[in-house]
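Running this now, will post back.
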Amino acid sequence: MPGADPRRGGGAVAAAGLRWPAGVTASALALAVAVAGGCARPPQGVVFHAGEAPAKLSQWNLFTRSGTRLVPSPGVLPYELNSPLFSDHAHKLRTVWMPDGVAAPYHDSDVLDLPVGTVLSKTFYYPLASSSEGSAEGSAEGSARSSGAALAVLASRPGEPAPSPLEDLGAVVLLETRLLVRHADGWDALPYVWNAEQTEARLTMVGAAFDLELAPTTTGGGPGGTGADAEALRYFVPDRNQCGGCHVTDHSSGALQPIGIRARHLDRAAPASPAAPPGAADQLTLWHLEGYLEGLPASGRGTPAAVWWDTDQPLESRARAYLDINCAHCHNPAGAADTSGLLLDADAGLEAMGRCKPPIAAGRGTGDRRFSIVPGDAEASILLFRMRSRDPGVAMPELGRSTVHHEGAALIAEWIDSMQGDCGHTRAGVTGTLRTGG
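Update: finished.
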């Protein structure tokens, strides 16, 4: 293609509740295990499907398989977020690809307006509790999938290194790959679920479920560092309609939008990659050098979102970053939860975030508590009560998790307990005074 960026490979346009082993949810990066036998092939361009979505993830050609590694096709950039959304301790491999000649304009605060033809992928995977050399296929873990037994996996540990499909497919199990594809009429969400052999992911509109066992780790015991024993977990892949439960961030329009594609989430060190262009000191610069981002200011950018588990950063910044990425897609002025009056986006004031705010329509989700946030008293706060619940009628977020994120809840509890003031009320059954600032 004349004038095409060789890093993008030219590209092409095509016109046109399970248990093991019936499906493993395919995360966005797994799109690419296109070759069943594990043989390498020369890098080729991504194939953009402007019409009907293909049945197989490999038909997008986002990745190829080289030995025991996934290799991104030219122009497919892995990226990371400062504070990722919690999804039952799953790890995520995120990628972005754009066709030649287009780029997103930089914006300090809004979701970046990615151009038509963009493909975002997110592959959900877990490190195996035990792995064999080479491939997961034929291993003990493969046998477990084939028998329908729960698969023993390791929970993600914030800030700790973990195996990646880009490094060793034999050390992980790929569950699902979710694509967000930008067409002329808006975004489309496509869930692909990986097979038990880990050789292909298929488009699965009705969702899927997998039985997992989160194994204790050598640091901190069970999931969340609680010291608990292994935890049984049913991992759910959303059906296509459920994708809108999070990605319709403006319910008046009903349009899907990416969640993490904001400068504050992306402004961080660039992931290590041999394909990265030289001079990419940070991830936004990497996107700019790749031709995916235009108008990037040399200085004076907005403040990056905090890394919520980094205790060297301010406590309030970490708590706000956590609530922003996990809750604000619904709890924003235009979101599905706007009628609750509880706003958890990055710029919300403390009163809007629930300080001394009585619930509007939470029902039993209040746990007999009076206020969303009771500064100085996390145990009396509705927000923490709902974060700690596994009851489907109480738990928040209501989508994307089947278990409790103990580390995230501990962060929010610490933040609430650090607040000063007094709400001036007491609640039966809870010791202490409901306090608040102001």
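Residues 315-327 form the longest helix (13 residues). More later if anyone needs it.
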